[in-house]
TrEMBL record:
Domain Endoribonuclease YicC-like N-terminal: 2-157
Record domain Endoribonuclease YicC-like C-terminal: where: 177-240
Family (UniProt): Belongs to the YicC/YloC family.
Protein's UniProt keywords contain Nuclease: yes
Pfam families recorded: YicC-like_C (PF08340), YicC-like_N (PF03755)
Name the UniProt record assigns to this protein: Protein YicC
Cofactor(s) annotated in UniProt: a divalent metal cation
Keyword tags: Endonuclease, Hydrolase, Nuclease
GO molecular function, one term: RNA endonuclease activity
Length: 246
């Protein structure tokens, strides 16, 4: 079965704290051209991701996206460094007393903007278990994209077969017109010699010239070449080696 070069696939996976989304789009291209947008956590796996995409699709202009949707929960909120807030607060009070500077009217706004008060969560390393979930989602997305391309290819194959059948049938209808055309050419030439030009001519010589001329009008070679092309097209479709643009 042929496959369209145009395809789309998407799959998702749920983890306790996030949702993983994978999306792949493909367009026609003679070579493999992959553009990726990968969430930072999974960038270390980019080479492996590219290998999986190349293995499944072989060629095409491919846009690959892998992103995360964080789940909202109290545990995911950025923690506040209480000890550091207390330290900043004590220092500000001391500075206010020593330098006679008024204390802030809005303590929270002031304290929360100070360096490192909002503690940054540690960067989590990618576990093997999580990567297996992500990889499975990528492979599922590739399966969806391939199925999409096969469906498009099946519709195109049907259209190709219809057009090839029409051409084949029309080719068969040419034969009677071809014989009639040659006779009309012959009649037109002899009529021009006898009636229009009103001259005597050597009929044997005319026959020889007509044979030479009619050979140039013969289209059997072109018909055979077209027939071969149509057979080759059908063979390519049935062998399933074709990739078509759409």
């Amino acid at each position: 079965m042929i496959q369209s070069m145009t395809g789309y696939g998407k799959a998702t996976a749920e983890l306790p704290d996030k949702k993983i989304n994978v999306e792949i789009k493909s367009l026609n291209s003679k070579a493999m051209d992959i553009s990726t947008r990968i969430a930072p956590t999974y960038r270390e796996k980019e080479i492996e991701i590219r290998n999986e995409v190349s293995k499944a699709l072989e060629r095409g202009k491919v846009d690959f996206s892998l992103w995360i949707e964080k789940k909202e929960c109290a545990e995911s909120a950025t923690p506040i460094n209480l000890a550091l807030v207390q330290g900043y607060y004590d220092q500000i009070l001391t500075i206010s007393e020593n330098l006679n500077i008024p204390v802030p009217h809005d303590w929270f706004q002031t304290l929360l903007r100070l360096p490192d008060v909002m503690s940054k969560p540690e960067i989590q390393e990618l576990s093997d278990e999580e990567w297996q979930v992500v990889l499975k989602t990528i492979l599922e997305t590739l399966e969806h994209l391939t199925e999409f391309r096969k469906q498009e290819g099946a519709a195109l194959e049907q259209k190709f077969r219809e057009k090839i059948s029409n051409i084949t049938n029309l080719l068969k209808l040419i034969t009677p017109f071809e014989k009639e055309r040659i006779e009309k050419v012959k009649e037109r030439i002899t009529d021009a010699l006898e009636k229009t030009l009103s001259i005597d001519y050597d009929k044997n010589r005319l026959e020889q010239e007509l044979i030479f001329y009619i050979e140039k009008l013969d289209i059997n070679e072109e018909k055979q070449r077209l027939t071969n092309h149509l057979k080759y097209f059908i063979t390519t479709l049935e062998n399933g080696h074709g990739k078509v643009r759409s």
